[in-house]
Amino acid sequence: MTNAEIAAAFEQVADLLEFQGSNPFRVRAYRNAARTIEDLPEPVAKIVADPQRSLTDFEGIGKDLAEKVTTLVGTGSLPMLQELLAEIPESVLAILRVPGLGPKRAAVLYRELGIASLDELREACQSEKVRALKGFGAKTEAAILQGLDIASEAQRRILWAQADEQVQAILDHLRPCPAIEQLQPAGSYRRGKDTVGDLDLLAVAKDAKRAMDHFAAYPGVADVLLRGETKMSIRLGTGLQVDLRVVPAESFGAALQYFTGSQAHNIVLRSLAKSRGLKVNEYGVFRGTKAIAGRTEEDVYGALDLPCFPPELREARREFDWAQAGALPRLVELGDIRGDLHAHSTWTDGVATIEEMAAAAKQRGLKYLAITDHSKRVAMVNGLDAKRVRRQWAEIDKLNARLKGITVLKGIEVDILEQGGLDLDDDVLAEADWVVASVHYGQNQPREQITRRVVEALQNPHVSAIAHPTGRMLRQRRPYEIDLEAVFKTARDYGKLLELNAHPVRLDLDDVACAAAKNHGVLVVISTDSHRVDGLGAMRFGIQQARRGGLTKEDVANTRTWTQLKKIVGKR
DNA sequence: GCCGTTTTCGGCCCGACTGTTTTCAGTCG
User: Fold this and answer.
1) 20 to 30 A Cα–Cα from A163, which one of A157, A260, A457, A557?
2) Residue A552: which of A339, A326, A330 has the closest Cα?
3) Which protein residue has its CA closest to C1' of B24?
């Protein structure tokens, strides 16, 4: 069983227990354990199999949950979960996803009216049976019906890049408002999560009412969900929910800290404060009733003797341990990047010439750019055979002779063939500065076969890196199945790199995988896989993920000069 | 169910908003 599957089982247990009205802290214990396991940089099965190690060493996993994990790994199922499912139909869990309905009310609906599915819920609301229940009323009934519509509207998380567009548009709308003095987006958007569920905006305003009126007048607003003194929620026509909070200037830092989250990070922070006789809320840090911090985030963390964590690290993973040890990693930054090592040109499916790409890279301050067009197997895009790639490289040599301030590397994105092996002969690859290998075909093969192909490619002396190693290549396609553990191990043993493809919809090496690579001592290379000049701008998406994975400048290969880098990958 | 510079019991983050209440429970983040 994979970590994700084990985590999902625990999440389901938590949902069911919550529905049953169990001790909320017990529910939280299951959710915490699910998170811990999901974030683990190695397969939990490996830890279980190792007699030297114990699952209870991990945060939030005690004796009981360690046993349950062992059961799940060994048998693939969990008796406790089966028992819960025998008592409660799985379909009721969908009801918990309806906005405004939590475990308490869902349980009343199930107990009093036998409602066990979304369809039954809609039916009961429409026939006005729900309003008769104690604690419910006509307004609640209407709210549930509206919530049902939202739930069925595939209300899923959107990609960070899509959220970014909407954030910028809203900020542009809000900034001219004279009542607003400070404005800052928070939430998972600020933490740079690969996907965003809703947006949180934070403002300091002379006049909260005017600020909210201005917010409500944003042309993209479809619906005002709620509006109070300090908080207002709207839903955009795009389906995205946006919350605006108005806070006093002396609380701005505390509010920014609080609304940036994550929730798990805040829980740890507040517990820590409590153990020191302090209280943290969105208005500040308090000793008794006296505020001792709140204006800036630095003050808030500082009052607790903590460094101001970069938002990307605030996930209650390891940041508090790092801070305690005084060893918070200095995360990689966009400015550290010296070169881009995956780009296409008009020779295959790119839309810009090599020279145009090089000029754009130089303009972005890069010192080198590898042109890695496809090899011949990708016939659809006129992939390069030995003859054409050599012609391209001769042209790059000529180009380099007249370019100043940037070096174009002679690269290739060589296909890892279905039956194994690479799409170009070793004598050709040997002439390249930079070789990325990737799986484009045979993605439905069994896990062992794909793993073998990639591992074999990593063992080829001419290969520099594997592109999209987790197989998350296209948004709409399911990633291929691969034994990442084996890939990390081989990459480490052979001194090869794994590529974090920074395309906004192709986040192939996510934050957890980045952390795992680091854990295995494997360097990551962040590349944009650009097919056009503005594609080079996607580097920032990759940086975000790498930062979330705790990667420093040293963990990312393309922060090196090309001279340093080619020693790492053993090129001439 | 986890956890321990108040350690094996008794805690577990904290506040805003809403609707149905007549002082508060439920939900959300």
Assistant:
1) A557
2) A330
3) A135
Token pair 């200037």 is found at A249
What is the CA A276 to C1' B6 distance in angstroms?
A: 11
- Cα gap A22→A7, rounded to integer Å: 19
Nearest 5°: the CA angle A456, A457, A460 is 95
A545: nearest Cα among A508, A571, A570: A508
> Does residue A18 sit in the same domain as residue A135?
yes
* Pair A434, A318 in one domain: no
Task: Indicate whether A370 belongs to any domain.
Answer: yes
Same domain? A102 vs A162 = no
Distance (Å) from CA A464 to C1' B25? 60
User: Quick check: is A329 in a domain?
Assistant: no
What lies within 8 Å, CB to CB, of A121 at 6+ separation is A95, A98, A109, A115, A144, A148
pLDDT of residue A256: 96
Range of the domain at A194: 158-246
Share of chain A above pLDDT 70, in %: 98
My answer on whether A387 and A418 are in the same domain is: yes
A100 pLDDT more than 90 = no
CATH code of residue A220: 3.30.460.10
The average confidence (pLDDT) of chain A is 92
Residue A134: alpha-carbon gap to chain centroid: 41
Please give the nucleotide, over all strands, whose C1' is closest to the CA of residue A105.
B26
If one counts the domains in chain A, the total is 4
For B3, nearest residue by CA–C1' is A60
Three-state SS at A189: helix
* CATH code of the domain containing A437: 3.20.20.140
Chain B, protein-covered positions (CB within 7 A): 1-3, 6, 11-21, 25-29
Phi then psi dihedrals of residue A471, to 5 deg:
80, 5
- pLDDT confidence of residue A490: 97
Measure CA to C1' and name the residue nearest B6: A275
What is the distance in angstroms measured between the alpha-carbon CA of A93 and the sugar C1' of B27? 16
Identify the domain boundary among A153, A185, A202.
A153
Higher-pLDDT residue of A100, A488: A488
| Shared-domain flag, residues A105 and A49 | yes
Residue A454 shares a structural domain with residue A554: yes
Residues A291 and A224 in one domain: no
The spacing between the Cα labelled CA in A134 and the C1' in B24, in angstroms, equals: 14
What's the Å distance between residue A108 CA and nucleotide B22 C1'? 23
Instruction: Answer yes or no: are the C-beta atoms of A342 and A409 closer than 8 Å.
Output: no
Of A301, A324, A347, which residue constitutes the final position of a domain? A324
